[in-house]
Design goal:
The complex is a heterotrimer.
Chain A (H helix, E strand, L loop, with lengths): L1 H24 L10 H36 L10 H4 L2 H33 L2 H4 L3 E8 L2 E5 L16 E5 L4 E7 L14 E5 L4 E5 L5 E5 L5 E2 L7 E4 L11 E7 L1 H13 L3
Parallel strand pairs in A: 1-4, 3-10
Antiparallel strand pairs in A: 1-2, 4-7, 5-6, 5-9, 8-10, 9-10
Helix pairs in contact in A: 1-2, 2-4
Chain B lengths: L5 H36 L9 H26 L3 H28 L10 H31 L3 H29 L2
Helix pairs in contact in B: 1-4, 1-5, 2-3, 2-5, 3-4, 4-5
Chain C lengths: L19 H24 L10 H30 L21 H29 L11 H20 L2 H14 L8 H7 L2 H10 L1 H4 L12 H4 L3 H29 L12 H32 L11 H35 L6 H14 L14 H13 L1 H15 L8 H24 L1 H7 L3 H31 L1 E2 L2 H27 L14 H31 L1 E2 L28 E2 L13 E2 L8
Antiparallel strand pairs in C: 1-2, 3-4
Helix pairs in contact in C: 1-2, 2-10, 3-4, 3-5, 3-20, 4-7, 4-10, 5-10, 5-11, 6-10, 7-10, 10-11, 11-12, 11-13, 12-13, 12-15, 12-18, 13-15, 16-18, 16-19, 18-19, 18-20, 19-20
Classes of the chains: A alpha+beta, B mainly alpha, C mainly alpha.
């Protein structure tokens, strides 16, 4: 009994320390968040951390405490008999808690956050979004803005570039390079459209159209923070490491200007 | 038939049970191919599929399964010569059926740009490969029974070979119905 | 050698038979050349009549594999007898025995372990090359990125298919399970005797894949990249086919052994935990290995014929579904034997009964069952939105039976006189590392968080924590634990503790930083990366080199201990499972007479005997 109490106190102390750590550093988990989706993911992570910390502390403390105590334990204090083979209280608490925590996690953050994303991707929600057609090909990204008549956004060096206005939800329409050339069926492969600072990615599957929704929250760019870039995240051949593009999130007026300039350049 | 003591009978039952575990394992690819067919192409039956050849080879296959069953019964009765004869029939009928399936594969109008009909190719190919393994086993068994005869401890090996061939035919009939009709 | 006397007839010349490995290689080479040339010159010559074409190398490899298996002993022991020809085959004594076909389950176990260890260090070398390349953010060690990605693929493939699923199942399983159930042989010794030789063939095939060309899919072989890649990927398909067939045969054999060869008194209620682990894992193998083999055959056909299954007009996602249907149970196949070994070692080391044994068994069984429901959590980024939640649900649920193992072990060692020995320390480390792996899995199970972390180094760290943390650390623990059984000798405790701490520091240092790299935006399969990630990559590489040297240190220590360690008595841990009642090392026939089991193997505080020695001469 005393043993249990001592362990309990240690567990509470270290759990509190752990929770303090989560409060201090938990919000750095996503390192740099530049979209509402990233913030949602970060909040979900911090929630998980809060509940996982005491469990982690419990098990690790057991793995350290028991061997240390075991050295100096007298033979009389060893648990024997029926108690050594089963303890209803311990098993019941363990099983019930693990079930409860799992159900809790399933409700929040899993379902709640997922439903939020589903809602953001629903047709009503995306009807006013900025639409960008993203085409993935071995080994580059094409960005076209059908609402503005930009077929292929390029920067001054001729590289594909992604410009986004801050605060406005954008819907990325993801397709694989579709040459309609029947002699080259294996022409394109699975890619993954990832902007690390936006906290989400979506795979691009040949023959399918997939969608990803993001709302940028900061004015930033790849030069400011390299996590703001488009990076292919699914291995797609030898060019996979080089399949990235720069991203610029700018103010609404700067975006309009950029659109004008792209259209004038004939892109 | 020799009277077996309980221990040996249990040993034989265990061997057969272990073999059925193996057959369970071998049936997984067939289930996968059925699934795959419906996922890829729904209920499409390729129009160039030769129904006559398919019907003939299936009839031959079923006949070979019946002779295999006969062989199995004869093996239980420790009838070495009878087993050998029945197994040879099974081997011949099975060989012709397999060759006809290979013919279907050979003349199949391969279309690498359309997935319609290609699951047909892969499924028949799976059946052919398994049947080739079964034919090899049948050949080995008929050769072995000629050289080593049939004793009580040897006979379950022969029985398992017949069971394996029957399994192959059942798998083929299921695939046949699924591919050619459904 | 006899001595002839003058006037005797001349002695007949005695020719020593060719060593089986040499004969196997020779027959494989001949078979390959014959079939390859047949296909590439006669049956299907392609434009320019090259010596090797895709169909010719595939069919040539199949012929070579058959030649290898026949040459290594399959001819005299399997092929000819099944046709009725009785050919004498003598197993040579001594070390040569391990390089030939042998039906002794202990020899087979060692053969599997050695092949596995070889695969481990070869794939480990590949990993060292990878970490060396990642020291710099530009190509320097490898001239071309495809070569790096190919190395990643070789590393992953060999580790997953010849180490992860083989060391504890084919290796330790073949050696220990027959003894643990009180039998002198496994159920179908000839199957395992032949299947063990598929492992070196498979490893060699994957290693030789650069000869055919690069392949960049990594161990998962995703389509349509698979049919788009250069030809090295052919040997990926074929090598994995050989390795998985070997595992399938082992699983069939061990399942039959556990089901049918238990000794008297060994009821289901008394089955050892390791046997439960192997039984559940074997069932998974039996169902899913044929499935993945069919998937890889389809991938191969897709490429070689070519067929349009997994291209844009077909369904690339179908390949992913089929792969992960196997791929997820695969990782449980890797880790469930480790859980079972925890539950074997910990009661012995704490001299306390196994706590809540039935819950431990339920945990293993439910992990096995649930593993078939969670596969698409590898596909959150490419599935329909409506499919996400059910998979997330089951993925989160599977953590519950996994937790039962922890519940059982903690309950066992609580308030005991737990001894920190090298095996028990490694089990503690394993439990710690797997805990981290498992908890990071909770993050990955959440679809929204998964959308950020999928295909980043966070996932790499997660699965290395679960696999190395769960399986490799436990493999080390098991080797030290059963070392006295294999050889009658003990390791050096100080060196063992040093070795354990060495790999722990190397491993946790390297891979915990990988979590952070993933969160900072580093994706997978890249030999080059943005400059800002370099600092941490250097640190990770240094820890990785420390880890590699640590594994090497442990290998040398274990090998030394097997040959020249201090001799110990037969059962130094005073364990009660049946394998410990045999001699150390065990005789040719482990049990001179079948043991009779009278009680539980895990009652460590009752002082009573668990198995009765049957009257007769004791095994020496």
């Amino acid at each position: 009994m005393v043993e249990l109490l001592v362990f309990g106190v240690l567990w509470v102390v270290f759990s509190i320390l752990g929770e303090l750590g989560v409060s201090a550093w938990g919000h750095n988990f996503y390192y740099y968040t530049a979209s509402t989706q990233a913030i949602d993911g970060l909040n979900a992570s911090v929630f998980l951390f809060r509940f996982l910390t005491p469990i982690f502390v419990f098990v690790v403390l057991m793995l350290i405490y028991i061997p240390l105590r075991g050295r100096r334990r007298s033979p009389e204090s060893v648990v024997r008999g029926k108690g050594a083979r089963f303890n209803a209280a311990y098993v019941t608490i363990w099983v019930t808690l693990s079930l409860a925590i799992n159900l809790l996690f399933f409700l929040h953050p899993t379902t709640s956050a997922a439903e939020a994303i589903f809602q953001q991707m629903s047709p009503q929600a995306t009807s006013h979004d900025l639409v960008i057609d993203v085409t993935a090909r071995q080994w580059e990204w094409y960005f076209s803005y059908p609402q503005y008549g930009i077929k292929n956004a390029l920067n001054a060096n001729g590289n594909n570039v992604l410009y986004l206005p801050v605060g406005r939800p954008v819907e990325f329409v993801l397709r694989s390079f579709d040459p309609n050339h029947p002699y080259a069926l294996g022409l394109d492969v699975i890619h993954s459209f990832w902007i690390p600072a936006f906290g989400e990615k979506m795979d691009v599957i040949p023959g399918e159209t997939r969608y990803m929704v993001a709302t940028p929250t900061k004015i930033t760019s790849t030069e400011t923070n390299p996590m703001v870039r488009v990076q292919c995240a699914e291995v797609c051949g030898p060019g996979h490491p080089y399949m990235y593009s720069t991203v610029h999130v700018v103010s609404g007026s700067a975006f309009t200007q950029w659109v004008k300039q792209q259209v004038k350049a004939g892109n | 038939m020799a009277v077996l003591d309980l221990e040996t009978r249990i040993e034989h039952k265990k061997l057969h049970s272990a073999f059925y575990l193996f057959l369970f394992s071998m049936s997984v690819p067939y289930f996968l191919m059925i699934n795959l067919r419906y996922v890829m192409i729904g209920g499409f039956v390729p129009p160039l599929l030769d129904q006559t050849t398919g019907a003939v080879e299936t009839v031959l296959a079923i006949a070979s399964a019946l002779t295999a069953l006969l062989a199995y019964r004869r093996s239980k009765a420790e009838n070495a010569a009878g087993y050998r004869l029945a197994t040879r029939f099974t081997l011949s009928l099975g060989l012709v059926a397999t060759v006809m399936q290979l013919y279907e594969l050979w003349v199949h109008p391969l279309n690498p740009m359309s997935h319609y009909g290609e699951t047909f190719l892969a499924t028949i190919g799976l059946c052919v490969v398994m049947q080739l393994m079964g034919l090899l086993a049948l050949w080995a068994a008929s050769s072995r029974v000629g050289r080593m005869g049939m004793t009580d401890s040897l006979r379950h090996g022969y029985e398992l070979v017949s069971i394996f061939w029957i399994f192959n035919v059942i798998a083929w009939v299921v695939m046949y119905i699924e591919l050619y009709f459904l | 050698m006899s001595v002839a006397r003058i006037g005797d007839a001349p002695l007949p010349l005695r020719r020593r038979p060719m060593a089986p490995v040499i004969r196997g290689l020779l027959w494989a080479a001949i078979a390959f050349v014959v079939v390859n040339c047949l296909v590439s010159y006669v049956i299907d010559p392609q434009y320019g009549t090259p010596f090797i074409t895709q169909p010719s190398v595939v069919l040539g490899w199949v012929a070579a594999l058959i030649g290898w298996l026949l040459g290594i002993g399959g001819m005299e022991n399997i092929l000819l007898p099944s046709f009725g020809y009785q050919v004498p085959y003598v197993e040579v004594p001594g070390w040569r025995r391990y390089f030939a076909y042998s039906t002794n389950h202990k020899v087979i176990g060692i053969q599997y372990l050695v092949s596995s260890t070889g695969g481990f260090f070869i794939a480990g070398l590949a990993a060292m090359l990878m970490r060396l390349q990642l020291w710099e953010p530009h190509m320097w060690l490898f001239p071309y990125p495809g070569q790096y990605i190919e190395t990643v693929g070789i590393h992953g493939t060999i580790m997953m298919f010849s180490v992860g699923t083989v060391a504890l199942v084919g290796g330790l399983g073949n050696y220990l399970i027959p003894m643990m159930v009180g039998s002198n042989s496994s159920a179908f010794p000839r199957i395992s005797a032949l299947s063990v030789w598929l492992v070196p063939a498979g490893i060699l095939t994957v290693i030789l894949s650069p000869l055919l060309g690069q392949w960049t899919t990594g161990w998962r072989g995703y389509e349509p990249l698979g049919l788009n890649d250069p030809n090295g990927i052919l040997f990926y398909y074929l090598g994995v086919f050989a390795l998985t067939v070997s595992s399938l045969m082992v699983s069939l054999n061990l399942t039959a052994t556990i089901l049918f060869k238990r000794t008297k008194g060994l009821t289901w209620n008394r089955l050892p935990m390791y046997a439960w682990g192997i039984l559940t894992v074997s069932l998974l193998n039996i169902i899913w290995l044929p499935e993945i083999d069919m998937t890889f055959v389809l991938g191969l056909l897709d490429r070689v014929v070519p067929l349009p299954f997994f291209t844009a007009v077909g369904s690339p996602l179908t390949y992913l579904e089929m792969f992960w249907l196997f791929g997820h149970p695969e990782v449980y196949i890797i880790v469930v034997p480790a859980f079972a070994i925890w539950m074997e070692i910990m009661p012995v080391m704490s001299k306390k009964p196994l706590f809540a044994r039935e819950w431990g068994i339920i945990g293993l069984i439910f992990v096995m069952m649930l593993s078939g429901f969670v596969w698409a959590h590898h596909m959150f980024t490419n599935m329909r939105l409506t499919e996400m939640l059910p998979f997330s649900f089951f993925t989160e649920m599977i953590s519950i039976p996994t937790g039962f193992t922890y519940m059982v072990v903690i309950g066992t060692i609580w308030r005991s006189r737990f001894k920190v020995t090298v095996p028990s320390l490694l089990v503690l480390m394993s439990m710690f590392n797997f805990l981290i792996g498992g908890m990071t899995g909770v993050f990955l199970a959440d679809p929204v968080i998964n959308l950020q972390l999928h295909d980043t180094f966070f996932v790499v760290a997660h699965f290395h924590f679960t696999i190395i943390g769960g399986m490799v650390f436990t493999w080390l623990a098991a080797m030290y634990y059963w070392l006295p059984k294999f050889s009658g000798r003990l390791y050096n405790p100080k060196l063992g503790i040093i070795g354990a701490i060495w790999v722990f520091i190397g491993f946790d240092g390297a891979f915990s930083l990988m979590f952070i790299q993933g969160l900072r935006g580093m994706n997978r399969w890249v030999p080059v990366y943005p400059q800002y990630l370099q600092g941490m990559n250097i640190v990770i590489s240094i820890f990785a080199f420390i880890l590699g040297l640590g594994f090497l240190f442990n290998l040398l220590h274990i090998v030394w201990a097997l040959k020249s360690g201090k001799k110990v008595r037969e059962n130094p841990w005073e364990a009660k499972t049946l394998e410990w009642s045999t001699a150390s090392p065990p005789a040719e026939e482990s049990f001179a007479a079948a043991p009779l089991v009278t009680g539980s193997f895990y009652d460590y505080d009752d002082g009573g005997a668990t198995s009765l020695p049957v009257p007769g001469p004791l095994p020496m």
